[in-house]
Design brief:
The complex is a heterodimer of chains A (426) and B (282). Chain A is of the alpha/beta class. Among the domains of chain A are: 153 residues, Rossmann fold, CATH 3.40.50.300; 118 residues, Coagulation Factor XIII, Chain A, domain 1 (Distorted Sandwich). Helix content of chain A is 25%, strand content 34%. The C terminus of chain A is likely disordered. With 282 residues, chain B is mostly helical. Helix content of chain B is 69%, strand content 1%. In chain B, helix 7 crosses helix 9 and helix 9 packs antiparallel against helix 12. The N terminus of chain B is likely disordered. Classes of the chains: A alpha/beta (426), B mainly alpha (282). Chains A and B meet through helix 4, strand 4 and helix 5 of A and helix 1, strand 1, helix 3 and helix 6 of B.
Chain lengths: 426, 282
């Protein structure tokens, strides 16, 4: 056996896009199209380059026992790469060689049948993932134990909560005992204890010298899981190396791409954002902030006409779409001078009390307080880090004040209302 | 298992490259996934009659009702001859293989699309799906067969020793259904028109087969052409082995069997060529 678990050589994958695919949706269209093309002079003219390269010359080698994170924006080709490597779809060109038993989890629970019970689904899903019947029977108790749904084993899964469903599905997948595991953003499901179980499971796999290929948007989990990252952009590898460097490249590359308009062409808007940068209080560039840290956001604008009394609004949107907080210069009674041509603005947030997650910054500019929006853009993403606080604790967390009350009413005047930190009043 | 033990085992090698033009069925992989085939068949059986009060009873009620309707319409009102066999028995012996075949064909043609999620997210040899869809309806076939034997007893008809040849004709129906599915399944992945065409295809095919009328109604000079429909051989074969009536045209039967094999072989090649794009277009 060699040291290499996965070797990819110039993998390419093209998809047809544009007219041809749109038109030929029914048999009749296909027939008319093929008749038409029969009368064309040469075949080449009809296949103008309407192909889209989902992967282009992707080459890498991964030794046994290494965890590699695959990062990139949506549509960069990460999932296509996993699909090719797990043989769901075929590459157009290139070659790959994988040594070891492959387990791929592109989605947890595909193959579960709603009408079947939990017990039946364990067998069905196990066999879909490639386990033999006796293997599933042998691991059955361990699977049920891991999932924590033993009470509902004989209930059809259509009556399960989504959490139970995912837990049972993941429990089956976790017992596949693969030597090479490819996962697409699936460890981020379930509640906190279950997530910890999953991370423990990934660590155990790693100790057993398994190779893990991990696709995620969450730089935080990439950092904790992988020492190496492959950054893919437009189907090509932009960076392959140590995680910290990779994430830096990724963030730099994605920064301008991230400055997209929420809708329509930037030219249609009177003012637009030309740059956005995140720093800590001391001015160091970063995008992973510890819970409680303050953030300095530097914005640069370019106006095509004069915007009177602009109201700059900066919103934090969590990765699951929850709008978490909003800063507005008008609400804070800040007089931003009229913007014409270029202008810059800096915002220092209060200590961030948001829970550990990924957030995207949306920037909105309104004219004359809350009048017409003149700019609406999606800026950068950042992460908040905390060892326990996550979305299960809500949107934000603030320490409260507590009073221990042994059998009688609380003496509320004892609580110092001006104190900011949580404390125990005796 | 510790890592030294792991390293000692030979590791399976997976090679990924664009498949070449040569015909490679890779039946070894299908065989390795026989467990999945088993569970897909089992799933089909489990979900088919779930949350139905009569449950598996439907497998019996459906063919019996169809026989009654056919007997009333074609036997009584239309007075279609049945070669001296009581009409219910005449229709039932044909409906037994026909119901199996039409069901296997219908489910096999749409099965890939019904399991689209599976195909776009998980690797397994795609051939397992049409295989499961032609195996699953055999369960209904068995139940119906038992009912048929009962009805024949009612009419004082005892199955002949020829019944032992029945699996041979069933096999032809199975292979035919599989062959048709290997063609229609991939087309349905790309063009959902197949799904809408199925009911008509099944109806036309039934009236082109001697289900409600006897083969003897077909003029002699058209009979060979008519017999190219492989279901003619299957249905005539069923009547022959179960009732001992009729003298089958072995030449026509052999010809239609060859046709089925040809269709199967072509279907396998076609399926294999198309399956590469299933996940992309489904």
């Amino acid at each position: 056996m060699s040291d290499t678990a996965i070797r990819a050589e110039r993998l390419c994958k093209t998809y047809r896009i544009g007219q041809r695919r749109e038109i030929q949706n029914t048999l009749r269209d296909q027939l008319t199209e093929s008749i038409k093309s029969a009368f064309r002079r040469s075949k080449k003219t009809s296949t103008v380059d309407d192909s889209f390269w989902a992967l282009k010359d992707v080459s890498f080698e991964i030794p046994h026992g290494q965890n590699v994170g695959i990062i990139g924006l949506n549509g960069a080709g990460k999932s296509t790469l996993l699909k090719v490597l797990s043989r769901i779809t075929e590459p157009t060109k290139g070659y790959a060689r994988i040594e070891g038993r492959v387990g791929s989890l592109l989605e947890v629970g595909t193959g579960f049948h709603w009408e079947l019970t939990g017990r039946e689904n364990v067998y069905l899903y196990g066999s879909i993932l490639g386990m033999a019947k006796h293997e599933i029977a042998r691991k059955f108790d361990a699977i049920v134990d891991f999932s924590g749904v033993e009470k509902f084993l004989d209930t059809p899964v259509k009556r399960y909560s989504s959490g139970m469903y995912v837990r049972l599905a993941f429990a089956v997948a976790a017992h596949l005992e693969p030597e090479i595991l490819m996962i697409d953003e699936v460890l981020s499901v379930g509640d906190l204890p279950f997530q910890q179980k999953c991370m423990q499971f990934a660590k155990n796999l790693q100790q057993g010298n398994a190779t893990i290929l991990f696709v995620s948007h969450n730089m935080f989990s990439i950092k904790t899981m992988c020492k190496r990252v492959i950054f893919i952009k437009n189907g090509q590898i932009k960076f392959d190396g140590p995680t910290d460097d990779g994430i830096r490249v990724y963030e730099k590359e994605c920064r301008l791409d991230n400055l997209t308009w929420i809708d329509s062409d930037p030219e249609d808007w009177p003012i637009h954002l030309t740059d956005i940068a995140l720093h800590d209080e001391e001015g160091r560039t970063k995008n992973i902030f510890d819970y409680g840290e303050r953030m300095r956001i530097k914005l640069k604008f370019h106006g095509r006409r004069e915007i009177k009394r602009p109201n700059i609004i900066v919103a934090f949107i969590r990765s699951d779409g929850v709008a978490c907080c909003n800063f507005s210069s008008a609400l804070d009674d800040v007089d931003v001078p009229a913007i014409c041509e270029d202008g810059g603005l800096e915002l220092l947030t209060p200590p961030l009390k948001l829970v550990s997650e990924m957030y995207t910054i949306h920037v909105l500019v309104r004219e004359e307080g809350f009048q017409q929006a003149v700019c609406a853009q999606v800026g950068m993403t950042f992460h908040v880090r905390h060892s326990t606080l996550d979305t299960h604790f809500g949107v934000f967390h603030e320490p409260a004040q507590w009073v221990w009350n042994p059998g009688e009413e609380a003496h509320s005047p004892d609580i110092d209302a001006r104190s900011n930190t949580g404390s125990f009043v005796e | 298992m510790n890592s030294t033990q792991l390293n000692a085992l030979p590791k399976p090698i997976t090679e990924i490259r664009p498949s070449n033009r040569f015909f490679n069925l890779d039946l070894a992989t299908v065989f390795r996934y026989r467990g999945l085939l088993y569970f897909l068949v089992w799933r089909e059986l489990k979900i088919r009659y779930k949350q139905a009060a009569i449950g598996v009873g439907w497998a019996v009620i459906q063919p019996v009702l169809t026989v009654l309707i056919f007997t009333a319409v074609f036997g009584h009102f239309a007075r279609i001859p049945s070669d001296g066999i009581p009409y219910p028995i005449f229709a039932f012996t044909a409906l037994l293989p026909w119901t199996y075949f039409s069901e296997a064909m219908r489910r096999g043609a749409t099965g890939l699309v019904d399991d689209a999620q599976l195909i776009s997210k998980i690797y397994f040899p795609r051939l397992v799906i049409p295989l499961a869809m032609v195996v699953a309806p055999m369960f209904d076939f068995l139940l119906t067969f038992i009912v048929l034997v009962g009805v024949m007893a009612w009419y004082n008809i005892v199955p002949t020793w020829g019944t032992l040849l029945l699996p041979l004709f069933l096999l032809q129906a199975v292979i035919l259904a599989l062959a048709v599915d290997l063609w229609l399944g991939p087309i349905n992945v790309r063009y959902r028109d197949v799904k809408h065409t199925m009911p008509f295809l099944i109806q036309i095919w039934m009236y082109a087969s001697p289900v409600v009328y006897p083969l003897s109604m077909i003029p002699e000079r058209w009979r060979l052409l008519y017999s190219l429909n492989p279901m003619v051989g299957v249905i005539e074969g069923f009547r022959w082995v179960l009732l001992g009536k009729g003298n089958p045209d072995f030449f026509a039967m052999g010809l239609s069997a060859c046709l089925v094999l040809l269709l199967l072989f072509g279907g396998l090649i076609y399926f294999k060529r198309m399956e590469r794009f299933f996940a992309d277009v489904i």
